[in-house]
Amino acid sequence: MINQIDFKMMKQVLFLFTATMVALTFGSCDPDPSPPNQEEVITTVIVKLTPASGGKQLEFRFTDLDGDGGNAPIIKGDTLAVSSMYNATVQFLNQSGTLNEDITVEILEKAADHQVFYASSVPEWIKFAYKDKDKNGLPIGIEGTMTTLSKKGSGLLKLTLVHEPNKSGTDVSIGDQTNAGGETDI
Questions:
Q1: 68 burial class (0-12, 13-18, 19+ CB within 10 angstroms)?
Q2: Could you give the CA distance from residue 7 to residue 127 in angstroms, rounded to a whole number?
Q3: pTM
Q4: Which of 15, 33, 103, 130 makes the best surface tag, with the fewest CB within 10 Å?
Q5: Per-residue 3-state assignment (H helix, E strand, C coil) for the chain
Q6: Long-range contacts of 44-47 (CB under 8 A, 24+ apart)
Q7: Tens digit of pLDDT for each residue in 61-102?
Q8: Inter-residue contact 106 to 39 (CB < 8 Å)
């Protein structure tokens, strides 16, 4: 008789314990909020320029494996021919640690939230035109054309990936970053 009472009491205690744990589990958890946008880790930017008329593909590369601070980035340039048009593509990579992740895929998946801007230290020598568009018909900048004008000289090409730019801002759709706002990813 004692064994039957102990068994019934254990069964009731176990039931109450289980019910309490279930209530605490469901009562203490809010629905899982959507994760905040996490900034992409980008260590390497590769710009490939292929002459529209054919010829050797040129590659410009920026690599900073340790991020801001630490070691200076490694920058590899090349020489553009005057009065030439190039098909341009840009690739963003995360090569930190053992990773070799192509961030370009994520940028294209969220294309409406990104735009690449190209600026030359001598703007009258190089013109960039967007070839790709997001779902709203606004530029992305992963693909485009770069045209050099007839002047010879040297300068720097600055490429900026902006997260959540105002793509409807004045001249943003033609590559002017002035009114874009947003945050610089790299």
A1: exposed
A2: 84
A3: 0.76
A4: 33
A5: CHHHHHHHHHHHHHHHHHHHHHHHHHHHCCCCCCCCCCCCCCCEEEEEEEECCCCCCEEEEEECCCCCCCCCCEEECCCCCCCCEEEEEEEEEECCCCCCEECHHHHHHCHHHEEEEEEECCCCCEEEEECCECCCCCECCCEEEEEECCCCCCCCEEEEEEECCCCCCCCHHHCCHHHCCCEECC
A6: 44/92, 44/93, 44/94, 44/95, 45/90, 45/91, 45/92, 45/93, 45/159, 45/161, 45/186, 46/90, 46/91, 46/93, 47/88, 47/89, 47/90, 47/157, 47/159
A7: 999 988 877 889 999 999 899 999 999 999 999 998 777 899
A8: no
**Tokens found for residue 42:** 């980008």
Copy the structure tokens of residue 56.
């050797």
Tokens standing for 13? 């205690």
Tokens 């940028």 sit at which residue?
A: 107
